[in-house]
């Protein structure tokens, strides 16, 4: 059975059991402040479990892309070292939202595994939650009783809280779970040791394949448990492990999920994969084929590698893959990007984002490979210098601070530093390096540390967003919670009627005030979490249950929504001018400016930028009225021509924004008429990543401010130049400057000629050689010309010139060709440069060095006399 058939059988089985089959949510989470990535199948259904949203169907099944590389669920360091851990993996899942519970979930799982997939029953074991007295949780007797009708009781194992009580994070939905384990060992191995002894003991052939979670509780911030409004089922079956079991393999990497990728790596690297766990080459191949999946899906879902947040995690995964291939596969040129086509062929039919975004994914990965390979090359030079310094001091241990700086500042892998050091008979200060890493983690933790308390519920009123229609509203606080961070103590509030737009879709969250006749609080930010619109205020009201008036900062909202509307017009104009390959890849919409990232592989020309501006401003002048479809079926919106963005998760009903021919699915706030935008001006265009261009622009008040400043500058220039024709006046100044520069250059040359005659007579005879050490205030260019002339004309000579032109120390050394075997200009200048706290270099015949210490020229002069 192929992996494609295994996946399809799962979906078909649950479809026949009345489940709605839904597509995978994006691997990158954009509107959940508690998580960077989907780390489990249930992530996209959190709001259903918590009762914030109504499920689209009571029974759902899917295959979800997951990534576990940060936070509580972090498998990164295990990847490649064993046969079954992965960064990106598929989670097959079936869900019940207040419909069926333990009995049916257990029956479905058993029937699918044993009758549909045909796994021998004697190879299966199950675990149930044994209870936990510290939390007053009883043994899951119901699950035990239901399993008894399917499997022998001696194959039902009690599991502790760590293994059999599933929690998504520090807080959130949770509950007891029942795991299904499969024993894939040979009959001979099974005869020696029972599978009962190996369940949950990290045996590579006795593995958990499916976890049935019975979602009953919500873990609160104070660690207490409260019952959820309804009981739910949340199951997760590891697709890669299931394929291993059904295809009779002992490693996930031997299944056809990975073998096509491994074959391509073998072809490109010339290395043969043997599947040996401890073999560094095989570890590297496993790392590469795992990581290319994670990185490709993240980029396809809209997350580009970067230096912060989720982008940093993706860059780290990719660099880990490059590092392993560089060290153990001898791959010194980019090659990972060539694996994207194989991945597309394998998974494209189930995940259309890979088909659509394949070219972009490959371009971004290739660019990252180029960049990091250069980092490695530069790092190798730095490591070599560090080794030289260490050995010169008769030391055998590389200092931890320098090794950490290589890793942290320059991105050079610390394990590569270890390997190079060991080859030279050295080690690194491991304890010191660990201490430096710990310091960094503590700094990072301190910067992001935040303590969030539990919600205090007040008014049981509907919580609605009214910000599309009004910027002020009478409201109540329905719930609040305290938040403590490095900036102090704040409170998050949820309002019954909120005009504050929560950050999302690229648009910043609203600020404003929450006040009544008694007190007033500043609204510092507004975000969305688990379907709730949460505003952060700078204090707790004395009477939190009183009536309040919520007021949005009107001027900031006006400018933000003008910028948001103009991004829609910009998107359409870019597709008109550059082609329909253009797709939005990210945006920032604030009151001061907008940023728009889009797929395009060439730098835009001035003509293209001018045409874009012209098209957008034409739409603004046409005074096109907003057509808002606030809640229509997504299929209807798509049929109307609305653009849906890859990497976004849309519901069954959506909001469509239309300005004439521009139609997009969007949840942001917008102007009522394009004339409110005023004017659009592009301020910059550049590269955001390989295949991604970035436009920054302004509109509305900021655009007006921009042109007012330009007018003011032109007026000031006109006054300075005493002319209204500023352009012609500047042209004249340039002409005069060119003429004066030519005169100055001529004077310098004349002065240099005079110096040459004097310097020729100033050489001091040193045996059969001649030495000139001279101080001057000539500029570097003149000194260079003179030194080249002297070293040609004066045989067996070393010429050293020390200059203080423009108050900066400079040392220039020339060695005549006939002394090249005895003296090196580069070595001389390097030695002398120490006196001016500088450095430099060149070739054996000519070298220069600059420095910071002007007073050090005298010491350098005295030192040079002794050469």
Automatic annotation (TrEMBL):
Record note on cofactor: Binds 1 zinc ion per subunit.
Catalytically driven reaction(s): tRNA(Ala) + L-alanine + ATP = L-alanyl-tRNA(Ala) + AMP + diphosphate
Enzyme class: ligase
Residues in Alanyl-transfer RNA synthetases family profile domain copies: 1-709
Matching SUPFAM superfamilies: Class II aaRS and biotin synthetases, Putative anticodon-binding domain of alanyl-tRNA synthetase (AlaRS), ThrRS/AlaRS common domain, Translation proteins
Keyword S-adenosyl-L-methionine attributed: no
InterPro entries according to UniProt: aa-tRNA-synth_II/BPL/LPL (IPR045864), Ala-tRNA-lgiase_IIc (IPR002318), Ala-tRNA-ligase_IIc_anticod-bd (IPR018162), Ala-tRNA-synth_IIc_core (IPR018165), Ala-tRNA-synth_IIc_N (IPR018164), Ala-tRNA_ligase (IPR050058), Ala_tRNA_ligase_euk/bac (IPR023033), DHHA1_dom (IPR003156)
Any one Gene Ontology BP term: alanyl-tRNA aminoacylation
Function statement: Catalyzes the attachment of alanine to tRNA(Ala) in a two-step reaction: alanine is first activated by ATP to form Ala-AMP and then transferred to the acceptor end of tRNA(Ala). Also edits incorrectly charged Ser-tRNA(Ala) and Gly-tRNA(Ala) via its editing domain.
Family of the protein in this entry: Belongs to the class-II aminoacyl-tRNA synthetase family.
Official protein name in the record: Alanine--tRNA ligase
